[in-house]
Write a structure and sequence with these properties.
CATH superfamily of the largest domain: P-loop containing nucleotide triphosphate hydrolases
Distance between the termini: 55 Å
Structural class: alpha/beta
Helix content: 25-40%
Largest sheet: 12 strands, mixed
Strand content: 15-25%
Radius of gyration: 21 Å
Oligomer: single chain
Number of helices: 13
CATH architecture of the largest domain: 3-Layer(aba) Sandwich
C-alpha cells in the first residue's frame, strides 16, 4: 500500500501534467500558487541577505565547489560528486566531500562519515548518500551535517583538504564558494517553470545566472531538439556559463553479497548477463531514470517496485520483494544507494537473489569545458 507521502507525490506529479484539470484540481493549484508566491519571496529574501552581506558567509582556506540544482528531485548529484572527486584526486588534490546527511541521525550535528580510509557511520547514522560516497571514494574524507560551513572548517582543519565538494549546495549560501555547478535533469529540466509548491523549482529561473557551469544530466533520454530547447532556456538566464552534457552509464551488476563485501575487483567480469528477467527495486527521487538505465543495460524488466525516496528497508520489505520475484521468475536489481539501506545480514542469511547495479556519470559533450572551468577555479 502506498504511503501518504507517496500518494502526495503522485498527486503533485498529476497536477503538474498538461491534461485537463477538474474544478477541485484547479482549486488546489490556485492554493499552491498562493503558497508559491510566499515561498518565492522567502527564498529570494534569504538569498539577498547573504548576497548583500558577504560578511555573513563563512570563508575557508580551500577551494569550494558547490554541486546542486535548481529543482527538486534526482538530477544525479551523488554519481556526479563521485565523478568530480575522482577527477580532482587524479590531479593530486586533497579532496573532501560535504554532505547534509539527509534524514540521518547525524544531520543536525557535524560528523565524520569517513576519513578516507575507514567508514565510521552506517547509512542510518550518516545518510545513505554519504555512506555510498564513503564506500566509493577511498582517500576522500566525507563529512556530514546540515551546517556545511562547520563541516568545511572541520575538513580543512582535520584533513588539510585543499578542495571541498559541497554536495547539494546551490541553495546553501552560508558557505562561500568558488564555483557553483548546476545539474539540470534533461528528463524534466524545469517543470512548469514555477517555484515550490506550485512547481518543482527551488528558486526562480533567473537565479540560474549564479551558475558557473551547467551540466545537463540524462542527456540520452531526450531528442536533440528537446536538448536545444534546454540550452536556449539556460542561455535566457545565463549567457556565460559553459554547458556540458552527461549520461548515467550502468557499468556492472553483481550479487549483493559480493557488493557488500567489496571483494570483487573486476566487477564487469561478474556482471549478470544481458536478457535476464529482473524486477527493479528503488527508493529514489526519480525512479523512472534508473529503470531506463536498467533497460538500456540489456535486462528484461518485468516489474518495478518503488518506495518513498530514502526509504529505510525492513525485513518485511525484502520478503515482499522475494515473493514478487518468485511469482515473476525474476531476480531483484537495485541501486547502490538503495543497497546501503537494506538489511545485509537478512539478505545473506536467506540467500535472497538480489543484484546491485553500478552506475557512473559520463560526460558526453563539453568535457574540455568542464576541465577548463576546473583549472580556472583551481588556479592552474
Amino acid at each position: 500500500m502506498m504511503s501518504f507521502r507517496t500518494k502526495g507525490a503522485a498527486y503533485f506529479n498529476y497536477l503538474m501534467g498538461e491534461h485537463r484539470k477538474s474544478p477541485a484540481d484547479k482549486l488546489v493549484l490556485s492554493l499552491l500558487g498562493m503558497f508559491s508566491r510566499l515561498y518565492r519571496w522567502g527564498v529570494l529574501r534569504k538569498y539577498c541577505s547573504f548576497r548583500d552581506h558577504p560578511e555573513k558567509r563563512t570563508q575557508v582556506n580551500a577551494v569550494v565547489i558547490s554541486l546542486g540544482n535548481i529543482t527538486v528531485g534526482g538530477t544525479g548529484k551523488t554519481p556526479m560528486a563521485c565523478f568530480l572527486a575522482r577527477r580532482l584526486q587524479q590531479r593530486g588534490y586533497r579532496v573532501a566531500l560535504l554532505n547534509r546527511g539527509y534524514r540521518s541521525k547525524a544531520e543536525n550535528n557535524t560528523a565524520v562519515m569517513s576519513d578516507g580510509t575507514t567508514v565510521f557511520l552506517t547509512a542510518a547514522d550518516g545518510g545513505d548518500e554519504a555512506y555510498l560516497m564513503a564506500r566509493s571514494l577511498p582517500g576522500v574524507p566525507v563529512i556530514v551535517g546540515r551546517q556545511r560551513d562547520l563541516s568545511a572548517q572541520r575538513a580543512v582543519h582535520d584533513f588539510q583538504a585543499q578542495v571541498l565538494l559541497l554536495d547539494d549546495g546551490f541553495q546553501h549560501w552560508k558557505l562561500a564558494r568558488n564555483l557553483d555547478i548546476v545539474l539540470i535533469d534533461a528528463a524534466n529540466p524545469f517543470g512548469n517553470g514555477k517555484v515550490l509548491p506550485a512547481g518543482i523549482l527551488r528558486e526562480p529561473m533567473k537565479q540560474l545566472d549564479r551558475a558557473g557551469l551547467c551540466i545537463i544530466t540524462k542527456a540520452d533520454q531526450r531528442c536533440r531538439r528537446d536538448m536545444e530547447i534546454i540550452y536556449e532556456t539556460i542561455r535566457r538566464y545565463n549567457q556565460k556559463a559553459p554547458i556540458a552534457e552527461a549520461v548515467h552509464r550502468a557499468k556492472w551488476c553483481i550479487p549483493f553479497k559480493a557488493w557488500d563485501s567489496m571483494k570483487i575487483q573486476n566487477k564487469e567480469k561478474e556482471t549478470l548477463p544481458a536478457g535476464t528477467r529482473v524486477i527493479v527495486v528503488s527508493a529514489l527521487g526519480n525512479p523512472a531514470s534508473f529503470e531506463h538505465t536498467v533497460k538500456a543495460f540489456g535486462y528484461d524488466m518485468v516489474r518495478v517496485i518503488r518506495y518513498d525516496d530514502h526509504h529505510p528497508y525492513q525485513e518485511t520489505d525484502m520478503d515482499a520483494m522475494v515473493w514478487q520475484a518468485g511469482r515473476a521468475g525474476a531476480v531483484l536489481v537495485t541501486t547502490e544507494k538503495d543497497a546501503v539501506k537494506m538489511p545485509a545480514g537478512y539478505i545473506e542469511q536467506n540467500n535472497i537473489s538480489l543484484y546491485v547495479l553500478g552506475i557512473e556519470i559520463e560526460i558526453i559533450k563539453g568535457n574540455e569545458a568542464v576541465n577548463t572551468k576546473l583549472r580556472q577555479v583551481l588556479g592552474g
